[in-house]
């Protein structure tokens, strides 16, 4: 199974939606909450090539992007492959 990291804030609806999709697939992920944590948000922004919105999601070393990109991977049936899973 892939190593998934997601930077979030507590009340972000896009973060909630992305986490829901990952949970529905049985994916364990490491969540890094950046609420009120300027240093963590700056780290996320640097790693994400300047993108400062949440969520920002990585699968292994691949920067997926945000919720829209995660959902697009799911719709195109590429997400399971990135996660190291067989497609259902």
TrEMBL record:
Gene3D superfamilies found in the cross-reference section: Glutaredoxin
Glutaredoxin domain span: 4-64
Protein origin, superkingdom: Bacteria
InterPro entries with a match to the protein in the record: GLR_AS (IPR011767), Glutaredoxin (IPR002109), Glutaredoxin_subgr (IPR014025), GRX_bact (IPR011900), Thioredoxin-like_sf (IPR036249)
Keywords, comma-separated and alphabetical: Cytoplasm, Disulfide bond, Electron transport, Redox-active center, Transport
SUPFAM superfamilies: Thioredoxin-like (SSF52833)
Pfam family, one: Glutaredoxin
UniProt keyword Zinc, yes or no: no
Function: Has a glutathione-disulfide oxidoreductase activity in the presence of NADPH and glutathione reductase. Reduces low molecular weight disulfides and proteins.
Record family assignment: Belongs to the glutaredoxin family.
Protein name: Glutaredoxin
Organism annotation: Biformimicrobium ophioploci
Gene: grxC
């Amino acid at each position: 199974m892939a190593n998934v990291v997601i930077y979030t804030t507590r009340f972000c609806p896009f973060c909630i939606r992305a986490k829901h999709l990952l949970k529905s697939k049985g994916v364990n992920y490491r969540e890094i909450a950046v609420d009120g944590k300027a240093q963590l948000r700056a780290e996320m922004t640097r790693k994400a090539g300047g993108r400062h919105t949440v969520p920002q999601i990585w699968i292994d070393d691949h920067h997926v992007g945000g919720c829209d990109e995660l959902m697009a991977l799911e719709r195109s049936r590429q997400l399971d492959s990135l996660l190291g899973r067989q497609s259902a």
